[in-house]
Amino acid sequence: MSQSLWKCHxxxxxxxxxxxxxxxxxxxxxxxxxxxxxxxxxxxxxAMTRAQRPSGDEAPxxxxxxxxxxxxxxxxxxxxxxxxxxxxLAQTYAIDLARRPAPEPVWFWPVARRPESYPSxxxxxxxxxxxxxxxxxxxxxxxxxxSSLAGLFxxxxxxxxxxxxxxxxxxxxxxxxxxDDGVYAVxxxxxxxxxxxxxxxxxxxxxxxxxxxxxxxxxxxxxxFQLMDGPDVTSARGLRFTWRYxxxxxxxxxxxxxxxxxxxxxxxxxxxxxxxYAAP
Length: 280
Description:
The chain has two domains: 50 residues; 204 residues, Glucose Permease (Domain IIA), CATH 2.70.70. It contains five helices and 14 strands. The strands form two sheets. Strands 1, 2, 3, 5, 6, 7, 8, 10, 11, 12, 13 and 14 form a twelve-stranded mixed sheet that branches. A hairpin with a 4-residue loop joins strand 6 and strand 7. Helix 2 packs antiparallel against helix 3. One of its GO terms (molecular function) is metalloendopeptidase activity. Keywords: Membrane, Transmembrane, Transmembrane helix. This is Peptidoglycan DD-metalloendopeptidase family protein.
């Protein structure tokens, strides 16, 4: 019951912000109400985040296939920092992947780029193991990148506003896959209308699921990937995973690449797997 209540922290904080913004009489009942709602909302968010911290008896990392093909760069991953993002929304061990090479960030111009300017955009995303699709959404638009100093400030403000709403406003177009091991994989920031599966579909490792996009709380087209112990990102806990990959120096690894590491996947087997680049 309490956890269901904590999920409402966004609307509570939004109501507080509205009270403060519409208040035109200085410090008074409406202003104090707004401050109180903001404080209550932040406490609710803190309680929800605390409840999603991993327990002390975590399972060993689950070995999975890398859910992309080609050369990608790891960002915001658990090999560098835990939590890699935040415990909130089960992102403790989440990782971001972007195709490389890609346009370099700039200070002032262009302020933003079209998502098609990035090689990640439209890349196929693959099932990391056998499983079943339990949630899927791909109706949100792919927005411009936030590729400048102004874009950075904008995405920070935008991320705060998105956090006041439902999780889908942060995740963008997304897919949740229940793996046969009983854990759940999340793919976020998918390209609009790119889903190749539907809720209830059974998938095998290596099957194309969707395409990489730039929807939701995303500064440039990339894949946000995480594992959870339940299907609901607002109540589940993040889980660890390992991949087999080869870095730019040719060394092979079992684990998760550190931030800013460029790598290519090593497949455990390629037999009977569909070609993600093949025409439908």
